[in-house]
Recover the amino acids of this structure.
């Protein structure tokens, strides 16, 4: 059976139709900046179909494809503003919070195993923060301020503690995650490939952290990220070994921190003895969060705005997002400046900022370029294809096969959204093990390289086979109950690919079933074929 290729036929030219937003909105300005590129109107894809949009927006905001019921209701809705209504519904949902937790857990912790803080406590800290729509700068500040001694903020200290408090590792991760600067290659010398990244930048950040270390608090029976009250930073380039430099704390392109001058022996509240927890009068590390998130540091707002754009659009305006420098300029400089300014002006309101991005026509374009046009990804003339993350793939397969609904039925009156998705976590972790990056390594959600182990698992894995078995609430059971091939094909395609089948696809399904004498097995084969197709595997 030949399944249809990814995507649908695009309509050439600019999007026609009623604008979703007024001319004063950030969404409108996004479209204006993006459309200012030469020949953009010729290269720009048409507006995505409703089927494309409902699948995409659910994946991007909630990390899972829509249920068949929700997809059918959206497609049947004639309201001209139904896309905005759906955006607002999803942004207010538990699914949006859950997806942010999954995304930033992976981004900030690189799937590290539990060491000093239980992952469940860290996830609950993130969940509570995103559920409250905590401003992004406040969330980052709390993470960079926590040392693990305050029980109320101990979970936030996982960022430091589960990196074993290693100052060099933390320096590298702070710079790439919160400043958009990958300074890893600037530890021993100026960056060999990026002229703008200097060893001075690296050690300026390192100086905030160099006095800190992992301390085993025997009384509290836990480790904390303690800090001494003295210790200066000196360094040499491996290429100029005889020249020693010294630095105090400083954020790149900002002045040295103005620090109090304490006389030798007066650095501590009480005299410090090795083996005891130090109590410095002045904490350099406490200044890091303030300096990183300060309005005087434009790199923070710029990196944050670019990061969330990347999460929604699959590509940064500065790309890669952690290589922001003059030799890798933004594709749309004025747009990035506007986004950074507006995100900060909105007090780093994540929901409000994301809403503007996904309400734009730029976000809502089809993934199919106009016929005969070659489109540069950096132009944002089409929505980019990108593979589902391991978490998205697992949850979307469970959604498509009806297994999430099966879990709801099992839980009965206890079937809250959280309870249902908690039940799915074992399956999710199986997919993470197969499709995710190794623990401790940054995960690139745009990278895709299928392995033999992945292919074999999707073909023969016990979990997939179990999901295809018919039972009350499952897709295969629903399909088995449908006698008409056309109705079966419609339910199949809408459930798995979030779109109705073409006439040719309806015929393919009918012909396939007519040739098989084992109808239950044939139905499972049809579901499996769509689940493992490129159209399902990618967000588009």
């Amino acid at each position: 059976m030949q399944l249809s290729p990814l995507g649908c036929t695009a309509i050439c030219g600019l999007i026609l139709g009623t604008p979703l937003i007024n001319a004063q909105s950030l969404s409108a300005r996004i479209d204006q900046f993006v459309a200012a590129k030469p020949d953009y109107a010729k290269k720009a894809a048409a507006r995505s179909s409703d089927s494309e949009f409902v699948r995409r927006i659910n994946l991007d905001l909630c990390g899972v494809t829509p249920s068949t019921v929700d997809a059918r209701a959206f497609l049947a809705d004639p309201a001209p503003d139904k896309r905005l209504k759906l955006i607002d519904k999803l942004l207010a949902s538990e699914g949006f919070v859950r997806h942010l937790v999954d995304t930033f857990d992976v981004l900030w912790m690189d799937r590290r195993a539990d060491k000093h803080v239980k992952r469940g406590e860290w996830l609950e800290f993130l969940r509570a923060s995103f559920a409250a729509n905590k401003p992004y700068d406040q969330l980052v500040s709390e993470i960079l301020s926590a040392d693990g001694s305050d029980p109320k903020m101990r979970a936030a200290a996982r960022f430091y503690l589960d990196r074993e408090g290693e100052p060099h590792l933390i320096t590298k991760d702070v710079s790439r995650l919160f400043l958009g600067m990958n300074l890893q290659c600037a530890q021993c010398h100026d960056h060999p490939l990026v002229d703008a990244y200097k060893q001075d930048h690296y050690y300026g950040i390192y100086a905030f952290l160099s006095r800190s270390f992992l301390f085993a608090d025997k009384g509290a029976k836990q480790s904390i990220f303690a800090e001494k009250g003295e210790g200066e930073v000196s360094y040499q380039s491996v290429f100029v070994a005889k020249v020693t430099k010294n630095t105090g704390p400083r954020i790149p392109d900002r002045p040295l921190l103005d620090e109090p001058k304490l006389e030798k022996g007066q650095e501590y509240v009480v005299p410090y003895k090795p083996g005891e927890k130090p109590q410095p009068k002045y904490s350099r590390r406490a200044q890091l969060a303030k300096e990183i998130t300060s309005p005087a540091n434009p790199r923070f707002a710029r990196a944050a705005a670019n990061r969330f754009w990347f999460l929604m659009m699959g590509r940064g305006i500065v790309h890669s997002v952690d290589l922001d420098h003059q030799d890798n300029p933004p594709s749309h400089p004025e747009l990035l400046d506007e986004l950074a300014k507006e995100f900060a002006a909105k007090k780093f309101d994540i929901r409000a900022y994301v809403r503007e991005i996904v309400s734009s026509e730029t976000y809502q374009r089809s993934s199919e370029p106009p016929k005969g046009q070659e489109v540069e990804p950096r132009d944002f003339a089409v929505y980019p294809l990108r593979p589902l993350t391991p978490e998205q793939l697992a949850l979307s397969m469970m959604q498509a096969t009806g297994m999430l609904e099966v879990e709801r039925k099992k839980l009965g009156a206890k079937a809250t959204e959280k309870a249902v998705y908690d039940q799915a976590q074992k399956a999710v972790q199986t997919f993470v093990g197969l499709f995710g990056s190794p623990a401790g390594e940054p995960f690139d959600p745009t990278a895709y390289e299928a392995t033999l182990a992945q292919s074999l698992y999707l073909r023969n894995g016990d979990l997939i086979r179990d999901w295809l078995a018919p039972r009350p609430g499952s897709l295969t059971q629903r399909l088995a109950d449908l006698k008409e091939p056309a109705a079966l094909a419609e339910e199949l395609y809408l459930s798995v690919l979030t779109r109705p089948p073409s006439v040719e696809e309806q015929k393919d399904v009918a012909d396939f079933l007519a040739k098989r004498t084992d109808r239950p097995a044939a139905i499972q084969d049809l579901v499996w074929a769509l689940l493992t197709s490129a159209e399902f595997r990618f967000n588009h």
The chain has a mean pLDDT of 92. The two ends are 23 Å apart (CA to CA).
